[in-house]
Amino acid sequence: MIDILSYPFMRYALIGAILSGFGSALLSNFIVLKKMEFIGNGAAHVAFGAIAFALYFGLNMNLLSIIVAIIFAITIHQLGKKERVQENSVIGMLLSLSMAIGIILLSFKKGYVPEIDSFLFGDVLMITQEDLILLGIFDLLILFIVIFLNKELKYYSFNQRLSKIFGVPTNIINLLFLTITSVTIVVSVKIIGIILITALLITPGVIAKLYAKSINQMLIISVIVGVFSSVLGIFLSYYLNVPSGPMIVLTMFLIFLIAYLLRKTVLKSFAQ
Predict the structure, then answer these.
(1) Helices (H) and strands (E) in the chain — how many of each?
(2) Which of 37, 49, 101, 123 pairs as cysteine with 118 (C-beta 3.0–4.6 A)?
(3) Domains of the chain
(4) Residue 153 and residue 160: Cα distance in Å, rounded?
(5) Sequence-separated contacts (24+) of 50-53 with Cβ below 8 Å
(6) Sign of the dihedral defined by the CA atoms of residues 67, 73, 76, 78, in that order
(7) CA dist 218 → 13, 63, 64, 162 (Å)
(8) What is the model's pTM?
(9) Which residues contact 108 (CB under 8 A, 6 or more apart)?
């Protein structure tokens, strides 16, 4: 335990895992309830295009990724409001477009681009102080939104049309939710990777839904699961000498499997 904390990059990795696990877990509840799992995949692949663009032109990767994530969210929101265009269809098109642009730009670069593997699968060695600051800022923003827009998010998650009747500004909430989710994904890709980031945005919410009787309970359970599995995954990846991203996902899935198999037993014991 002590030796892992003696390395600065591992301290950064653990802090990054806690921050990404916390923010993603909070969002995962609303993603699961809204059945918007595809947005995680879409935003992650859009991040690939932004990263490739930044690598090719030598731009600030974090800044460009955040800008692209915001544009992605606004585009989904605007086109998704049209009767004949579904949000998932828009996400699918933008996902493919961004991947295509990214692959074309990388094909122009001579030789192998090692950074891409790190972004695809996650690499704790790449985490910087700037990444941690960004993760911390967006975690606080997510927490602020969840606390102060708790009622609005509940209505929005269960029935968007019904929420309009109760005076919830669904358009603003939807745009805000899409934006914060997309940005959280792009600033978390260094921890877990573009290909695997979706697991961090779905699994904690799914596990929480197995046991929780309210959204507030879901929020608490999902955060515990998200942070615990992320930190445990980092420790296991260090001691087993395997990539951190896949190890976090594997850890999270094993927790889900245990939670699913023990669900009836645990709920019975609490009922007595």
Answers:
(1) 14, 0
(2) 123
(3) 2-271 (1.10.3470.10)
(4) 10
(5) 50/98, 50/102, 50/186, 51/102, 51/115, 51/116, 51/119, 51/189, 51/194, 52/101, 52/102, 52/103, 52/105, 52/106, 52/116, 53/101, 53/102, 53/105
(6) negative
(7) 26, 32, 33, 22
(8) 0.88
(9) 56
What the block records as the tokens of 95 is 């996902």
Q: Are 17 and 188 in contact (CB under 8 A)?
A: no
Tell me the two tokens of residue 134.
């960004």
Paired tokens of 152: 């609005």
